[in-house]
Amino acid sequence: MIVCCFYYCIVVKFVFNNVGNFGPDWEPKDYELAKSISKYWTNFAKSGDPNGIDIVNWPRFTNGNKETQIFDSPIKTVNGIKKEKLVNHLLRDEIKGTFMMCFQEYMNRSGSVLVKTHQLSLDNAWINDMYATEYNPAHFHASKNSLVGLSSVLFMKTPDSYGEEITNHHEPANGHLEFIGGAQHSLSMSQIRLSPKVGDFFVFPYTLVHGVYPFYGTDQVRRTLSYNCDILPKVLVKEAK
Ligand SMILES: [Fe+2]
Q1: The model's pTM
Q2: Cα 79 from Cα 93, distance rounded (Å)
Q3: How many angstroms separate the alpha carbon of residue 100 from the centre of ligand 1?
Q4: CA distances in angstroms from 48 to 3, 11, 52, 69, 103, listed in the order given
Q5: Could you give the CA distance from residue 107 to residue 125 in angstroms, rounded to a whole number?
């Protein structure tokens, strides 16, 4: 797999199919990979479509199809996370009440001025099933009613292992949940990477960017339950009634 942290511009050598001129100890699989990447690149330059003869098909990325090409040996096509199932209708009132209590507690502890002027309203709940090679790209939440709210994630199943870490053994990413803040000041925390256990539960604002890294080497599922909760102005809620 192409990893650009130890050797900048390494990607260029694959694009121009000239690995081996200098740099690390290249292996036969690197030459094969460079040949394929170079073909994708030139096909795209010629026709706007990277696909062609003797290379693995690279599907078009659309809202409906989030398949992604992994330039490894061999080249693989993997899915983005697709197995999201809405479960609002399956949750009992006691469970909804427990989530609401947690969201309310978050609001109370936040000390936000919104506590006085706004109120909470549960939105969608859904299950995410992830399997090996899948991932959940960095994203934030919103609902059809509000851009302001709280989201949550409850860990229901985790694989026994997330497989071999392929990027950085000192700070593993495989299967990890990562929250990404906006500030990169040396005195602030811009990223938090977690490997939660079954039963762990997180509440966070809609606007907090987060994602899940892919994992490998298992056929076990990583299952989470997410729940969104809008924070709506009390005035609007009254008018809607
Ligand atoms: Fe999310």
Answers
A1: 0.69
A2: 34
A3: 18
A4: 25, 20, 11, 17, 48
A5: 19
pLDDT digit string (tens) for 45-70? 999 999 988 888 888 877 667 677 77
Q: How far is CA 35 from CA 19, 21, 41, 78, 145, in A?
A: 9, 14, 10, 21, 49
C-alpha 25 – ligand 1 centre gap (Å) = 40
- What domains appear along the chain, each with residue ranges and CATH number? 2-80 (no CATH), 83-240 (2.60.120.620)
149 and 226 in contact (C-beta within 8 Å)? Answer: no
- Contact criterion met (CB below 8 Å) for 230 and 147: no
Length of the chain, in residues: 241
205: preceding bond cis by omega (within 30 degrees): no
| 150 CA from centroid of ligand 1 (Å) | 11
DSSP 26: -
Q: 7 pLDDT exceeds 70?
A: no
pLDDT at position 240, please?
62
The CA 197 to ligand 1 mean position distance, Å, reads 17
With bands split at pLDDT 50, 70 and 90, how would you rate the model's confidence at 4? very low
| One-letter identity of residue 82 | K
Query: What is the distance in A from the centroid of ligand 1 to the CA of 139?
Result: 6
> Separation of 54 CA from ligand 1 center, angstroms?
37
